[in-house]
Amino acid sequence: MLGYSELKVALDKLRDHRMWNLFEDKTNAAIVISSQLLRCPLHKDEDLMANQYYYNSLGIGQKEILSIEASREEKFVAEFNRHAVEYGCRQVDTTVPSIECCKDIIEQIASQGIFESIQRMAGEQSSRAIEIANELKENGYYLMKGVISDIECEEILRDIERIARQEREGGYAYLYGNKQLSQRIYHLVMKSECANRLLKMDIVKAVADSYFTRQTNHDLYYLTSWHANILNSGAAAQKVHIDENVPEPIPEWPIRLNVNFILQDYTEQNGATHIYPGTNKLLMQPKHLADYKAIVLAASRGSIAFWTGKVWHNSGENRTSSPRFALLAGYCNSIMRELVAEEDNIKYAFKSNSIEKVDRELMPLLAAQHGLKDYRYD
Ligand SMILES: O=C(O)CCC(=O)C(=O)O
Ligand SMILES: [Fe+2]
Description:
Largest sheet: 7 strands, antiparallel
Structural class: alpha+beta
CATH superfamily of the largest domain: q2cbj1_9rhob like domain
Bound molecules: 2-oxoglutaric acid, fe (ii) ion
Radius of gyration: 24 Å
Order of helices and strands: HHHHHHHEHEEHHEEEEEEEHH
Number of domains: 3
Number of helices: 12
Strand order of the largest sheet: 1-8-5-10-4-3-2
């Protein structure tokens, strides 16, 4: 039987499955398949929020969900199970809506083996993701090789180079470090469509799901930063640090996870990230560095490096003549965001009521400028 995190992976798979477009009634298809995968706990009230999340992730709207929830009736069970038996599907022990519409769906599911194949894929992927999340909790980092194709690395790298150039030439680049030799490109989500594809990778989502997993009806995490860190030739090594900058002791529960998509070979010479394995368990800021050993995250392009916000690390020195690019996605536990003035979604309030209308005195309190690291979004 699958749990919710596997269901989420399964439904992500479902959307990409060749069968998905064949379902005319996608809402009911999602419900039938979810019910089958979870052996149908979907009817429980406390699961409603989770259900909505999954349906929404399949592009099914709120209005439809509510009408479905309202239309759940005991009498459908028998009907559903009658068809299920007929087509060799699993029977369910609770209500499933609109059984008449589901008849075709059940038939399609049965004839194409869609249920089994999705369940298998979801199971394989989620056990790998769980292994990676366990490694992350043990050593603080995990390196996965050969995940992004050469063509994709090349395309994204060219796009990042283009944006970096554009921002330097436009005079609004975010430059920092010794002689301003390093550059960050923030807000990639609005700047590079091809880079955004990386955020949608199944394995990345599954690892983040496993790392942040806990009993909750809320989202598990959000993207807190999506940016490129470029070390030009001669850029010095970064100070060793952790990415969870909260007072010590650093909590044991996950606050932050970093994912570095490696688009070019990462070497000792060009400034590959250094990691101090196991220091994530110390739950403290870096101290007495000489007592600990760092490894260099040397990796071929197409790899993905994960590290937790608790592990000591830094970017290395770039001693080559070409720039080193890191493409960094930072994921943050959703509760941090909810606590930080996001119980209301203040950013959306800004968007829908023109920012000019907001009391200027309240601007700093509302963090109106927070996170705007170049001139483009002033
Ligand atoms: O670019 C890198 O190698 C690491 C960057 C980093 O750790 C950071 O910016 O917090
Ligand atoms: Fe860092």
